[in-house]
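Sample 1 of the test manifest.
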Amino acid sequence: MTDATVTAAPPSRGRRSRTRSLLIHGALIAASIAMLYPILWMVSGSVRPQDELFGTTSLIPSSVDFGSYLRGWMGLQVSFGQFFWNSLVISVLATIGNVLGCSLAAFAFARLRFGGRNFWFALMLGTLMLPYHVVLIPQYILFLELGWVNTPLPLIVPKYLATDAFFIFLMVQFFRGIPRELDEAAVMDGCGPFRIYFRIMLPLSLPVLATAAIFSFIWTWDDFFGPLIYLNDINTYTVQLGLRSFVDSTGTSDWSALFAMSNLSLVPVFLFFLFFQRLLIEGIATTGMKR
Amino acid sequence: MTVHPTVWVDEARPAAAPRRGALRRMLARNAPGYLFLAPWLIGFFGLTLGPALVSLYLSFTNYDLLRAPDWVGAANYVRIATDDPKFAAAMRVTFIYVVLSVPLKLVFALAVAMAFNRGIRGLTVYRAIFYLPSLLGGSVAIAVLWRQLFASDGLVNMLLWKAFGIEGPSWVSNPDYSLYTLVVLSIWQFGSPMIIFLAGLRQIPTDMYEAAEIDGAGKARQFFKITLPLLTPVVFFNAVIQTIEAFKAFTPAFIISEGTGGPINSTLFYTLYLYQEAFGFFRMGYAAALAWILLVIIALFTAFSFLSARYWVHYDD
């Protein structure tokens, strides 16, 4: 990966700046180890003998045993395979919904002209600050009446209705940067709004759509509060709920298995981090994402 | 081929309006916009505005999901304000958490961003490493890990023993310390404000520092007279976002205390208390009142931040 700042490094100015840079690197490496130690500890803890977890501070296990992964996978009456499948379905469908719903609204706000546009836009911005808890109970009652509790629907359907205003805002900002001449030319060629949205806006907005998709996937995958409220049947559990049940059922008796499942639950997020790190970091730098 | 007058598209210049049919013209003008906005409008009324108003109504009732809501006037609010030790505990815990975790997180984020800003080698690698906890930290897995780290025989105590010969307490199950383990967890996730600071630091023109150096200003002076003032908009942004997030924190406290907010309410975050009232005891009216109080707190905080901003946030132009 290349980065502008790396190439912009000032030329070193003699021995003093060299010791200085050594010091900085030393400090940063120490800090990096401290930052990653807990995560590496969990990785090594999942494969090492249980008693070693409470006897040594070293990251290197004396022997490696992947049995904890099998014990964890089958640790509850429903296997983690089911939880992973549930999480995947919810996260994929919610991500599609978020990108679709928010991009439709963002296109209207950024490009179309209609009465009351500024009014609605202001209201949309107002919902950015609204804590979810204020709508939580009536939403729960609504979904209960609809018979949606214990189904993934309450976690998916709202995304298609663009309830996460943050992503609308993100996309509006990006759409506004696309030259208007493009849609004007398309209009001259007889394109309607839907074709402009599909053929011009979406293809030209792939970076922002990808950023939104990745963040909505990760946030949905990590979400604990929503599933905790809407999913009570163990067959419908997401990975996060499965982990929590696992904590409750094993308590602190089988840490290796608990760590094993914890590690697995982080794998999808970690893969996004590995492959789309640049997009994630740029997304945060340009929009001020909270996580 | 004739070019149709299009009134729906938001061109830089107003399009020529067709002569006939005012109603038709109005429809042609507004229909596409509202069509695209329809999903959001349904969501806004059905899932945001409507529920927010319903929960305001419910906050003046007793409601257990089974019987119809029973109007009790301001009784819920009166009880919260005068006769609810758990509410007082939740407020105290949440405020301590916000007041400690947000500034410390921002200080770490800024310090590391400053170290990076010198254009060191391997920046992308360091930056990725420091960002990773921020990305993973919200999950149940990390909360589970934290329970082990700060257990009586966990990693932290082993390290303390090895390094200093100190026998540490059981951090998570001691009410004097449990909250601070969550503060540490929050600080550990300084990655995203760090990236925002880094982006902000790059906006500061380097010639300002060169000029200051010629004038004989030291590094500390440069930091306080150039970097910090020019960075205040970013500090402001990070502070507001992180504070609102901290008010809403839930998962780590829930996992570490097994949903109880214990020991002795020491990790009873506001949202955890709200969850217990709503979905533990099914006191929906009371929980709705708690939710509206949270909304008011966040709104007041935001308003106060923006009002204070004019005195300390530096905006050029």
